[in-house]
Amino acid sequence: MSDINLDLVENPVIKAFIRDRAKFPENFKLNICEDDEMYLFSLSNVKDDRDRALVRYYAIGRRILDTVKQVVEWHFGSFENVPYFLDFACGYGRFTRFLIQEMPPERIWVSDIYANAVKFQTEYLGVNGIVSTGKPENYLIDRKFDCILANSFFSHMPERTFTSWLQNLYDLLTPNGILMFSVHDECLLPPHIEMPANGILFSAQSESQSLDKEEYGTTYVTENFVRELIAEVSGGKAFVHRIKKGICRFQDLYVVTNELVRDFSELKFNHHPEGYIDVAAFTNKENLYLEGWAADVNLDGRIEDLQVLVNGEVVQRCEPFYDRPDVAGYFETDVALQSGWNCYLPKNTVGLEDVLTVKAINNYGWEWILENCTVKSLVNQRQSQSLLGSTQTKLKLIETQLASAKIEWEQSQSKLMIAQTKLEESQTQVEESKTQLIAVHTQLEQTQNQLVSVQTQLEQTQNQLINVKQELERSHNRVLAMESSKFWKLRSAWFQVRRSIGLAGE
Fold first, then answer.
1. Quick one: which H or E segment has residue 253?
2. Nearest C-alpha neighbor of 207 from the set 90, 92, 39, 41
3. What is the mean pLDDT of the chain?
4. Cβ contact 204:214 at 8 Å
5. Cα-trace Rg, the chain
6. Calpha distance 370→367 (Å, rounded)
7. Angle at 278 between CA 273 and CA 279, to 5 degrees
8. What is the per-residue pLDDT across 416-472, written as a single tens digit (0 to 9) for each?
């Protein structure tokens, strides 16, 4: 058995990823065959960065498992209820190494045209193996399977073998079994290429370096083509369900079964969130600054949490908080508009050799690893992208900076509007208070005028009283003067004489 990466057990980057994403990290099968085209393809896409290629390789395997798991749990309840599973066109075990953590390897069959791939899996992963053939009519299997997966197989088949292989796999199903296979939908076609009337288009191009491109190229199909073909191979008795971009949000996944134990409406399929780190750099104060985007495009989906881990420990959490029009444009939905995020890691929490893991978690519990590598690797990789000076990278950085400036401007505008509103409210209150003050002042002036009038009347009355009092005093003095006069005394004596002689009257 030839394999590579024998030091993966001691690789801190891979250890961190497997610890986070494998169900049983201590039993996870790490080794990869040196002929594994999926690994080599990942390696070529990251400029021979071995750690990054490995993380991408394992991440896709886990993502496919999460997809298959949702369908299996809908139909069977769990992997434990699947007696026999066939991974057709299995490759070198990118997916199977995760599957054996869900069900016993002796209940799993793998099949591929590469005999070495089948050998690697049977010896290393402990599963059962079936070497496939180039011609569908030569693929003779004497057993049935309850669950069959053909991932990224029909997306490479020309029309002449597409139908035959679909017939073969359908015939291998148990009565209550399910068949899952992926295809390139017509929406993935370049705009200038038109789909033929029969609904299938084949191009002699693929990532395979060894298979005949005329037999294994790139195929695009319409939904109508797939449904009519399934009706043909099943004699019209199969039920079909399409999950748009169900495989890694790229290929469509079709689910075929002869018995609907559960209605397809009960299959609540959800995609993983997605994201990317645009900027990773140390500031002048030696803090690590991270900036990027994280989006979820599920119906009613959202990013629940965005975690930054250092050597497996969460050191920072954040959420998307500003708009990224470029991300919304890429996903063609405003749901992904508010996807921008950034955060700082203090210098005492992270070092260059530490393993940094950044992951997004949506409200359905699905996780997406944005990055899993050493801090040094991430910073160097982002800086090298900037130094390359590509227009696209610069544009993204400028858009990010503009987005940050925009959110700051919007926040400032919001604060200004709030302050302006408060000022207007204060001015209104001042005007109202001023009006009330004028009214009170007017009332006070009126009251003062009334008081002056009353005081005037009071003074006049007092003067009248003084005059009356003076007049009374004068009258009293006159009376006293009269009573003390000789005339008054004679008068009084005369009246006494009249009373004494009995004459009445005063």
1. strand 251-257
2. 41
3. 88
4. yes
5. 48
6. 10
7. 135
8. 677 677 777 777 787 887 888 788 788 878 878 887 887 888 788 778 878 877 877
